[in-house]
Amino acid sequence: MKKLFLTLALVVCWAVTAFAAGQINGLTLDNIEDKLVYQNTLNRGDWSPQLAKEDPAATWYSLSPTTAVAAGHEAGAQKVNRIQFFVSKDERIPSEDGRRMQFINDISYSALTAAGLCIPKFDRDKKKVGQFLQIMTLENSALFRGEKTTFTAKGYQFTAAIIDGIYTIWAEKK
């Protein structure tokens, strides 16, 4: 049931972004792995992207045991025009506090990486980064109530939600 719900949520989210205004900041299927590593390194993360699945309209990467990203593209095209991260709690961590802290960290890394992939030098505007994190991460209690949150900057709209215990953030060019 959980997998079906997430699949349906993904289809709905991607249907909304299917007509996005174009390529996300020069991202292609050829350079996305390097850019994911670079952005995550800026955020002091340690992701190692692994190709997980290729669909006609999306390429999926596993970034860690709890984090995945889907890069959407037109069938047969190399240009990435949709990006969506998924983060779940790491049930292998024995303590609830440990799981919660890892979940919070993974959410922050995913949100900052999504923004960094879309907006060059996003990390340098500390005020904008702070605003972004307050709205798009667990600092925003609306996410716990099942509400979607949005943030718009530099021609991109970011949307985040927690669906069935899984945090997701996606970006589209406006």
Walk me through the structure:
The longest helix has 23 residues, at 96-118. Helix content is 35%, strand content 28%. Residues 1-20 have low confidence and may be disordered. 31% of the residues are buried. It is an alpha+beta fold. It is built from four helices and seven strands, in the order H-H-E-E-E-E-H-H-E-E-E. A seven-stranded antiparallel beta sheet has the order 1-2-3-4-7-6-5, sandwiched between helices. Strand 6 (156-163) and strand 7 (166-173) form a beta hairpin.
Distance between the termini: 33 Å
The strands making up the biggest β-sheet line up spatially as 1-2-3-4-7-6-5
Mean pLDDT, nearest integer? Answer: 86
Number of DSSP strand runs: 7
How many helices? 4
Q: Portion of residues in helices?
A: 25-40%
The parts where pLDDT drops under 50 for at least 5 residues are 1-20
From the alpha carbons, calculate the radius of gyration and give it in angstroms.
15 Å
Strand content: 25-35%
Q: How would a textbook summarize the main sheet?
A: 7 strands, antiparallel
**What is the 3D form?**
globular
Structural class: alpha+beta
| Order of helix and strand elements from N to C terminus | HHEEEEHHEEE
